[in-house]
Amino acid sequence: MSQRVGSTSLAFARVWHQVDARERVLGRLARSIAVTLMGKHKPIYDPAVDAGDYVVVTNASHVAVTGRKAEQKLYRHHTMYPGGLKEIPFKTMLQSKPEEILRRAVSGMLPKNKLRERRLERLKIFPGESHPYEANIAKRYDGPRN
Q1: DSSP of the chain, one letter per residue?
Q2: What is the pLDDT of residue 140?
Q3: Which of 19, 58, 81, 118 has a CA that sits 20 to 30 A from residue 144's CA?
């Protein structure tokens, strides 16, 4: 009997992963989340097919950064008005919108193509411990903390 899953609905079934961001390094956490959203952890990975999984991130307000990034990192956006460049320091962003920090980091690690926004829709980020997707979680990721 063959064990080949192939191009079946079982192979493309989306699994829900939960990641606890408490004391996890921002860049390393974002890389592992991006790999899961793209589906690179699956044997059926194809860059042109959106076969990734859902990722639920909790405790986003407790994410860690290395070096002096906490004092030096800036998040920039432009309002499209003259002189409308806005710069928000990392510490201010961590207090006001901690989920935006992780969303921008993961977005920067995804391929810049038409599948990027669809993959980011499957990323659910919560600043605290509680979230409404508890019944959907199939896997919990407890990787290295450094």
Answers
A1: ------SSTTTTPPPEEEEE-TT-BHHHHHHHHHHHHHTTTSTT--TTS----EEEEE-GGG-B--TTHHHH-EEEEE-SSTT-EEEEEHHHHHHH-HHHHHHHHHHHHS-SSTTHHHHHHTEEE-SSS--TTTTTEEEEE-----
A2: 86
A3: 118
Question: What gap in Å lies between CA 109 and CA 107, rounded to an integer?
Answer: 5
Residue 85: inside a domain, yes or no? no
Note the pTM of the prediction, 2 decimals.
0.89
Q: pLDDT tens-digit profile of 37-65?
A: 999 999 889 999 899 999 999 999 999 99
Write out the residue range of the structural domain in which residue 24 sits.
16-65+98-141
**Virtual torsion, Cα 89, 54, 24, 93, nearest 10 deg:** 10
What CATH number does residue 130 fall under? 3.90.1180.10
Q: Is residue 81 part of a domain?
A: no
- % of the chain at pLDDT higher than 70: 91
Query: Given the structure tokens 């977005």, which residue do they identify?
Result: 107
In a domain, 93, yes or no: no
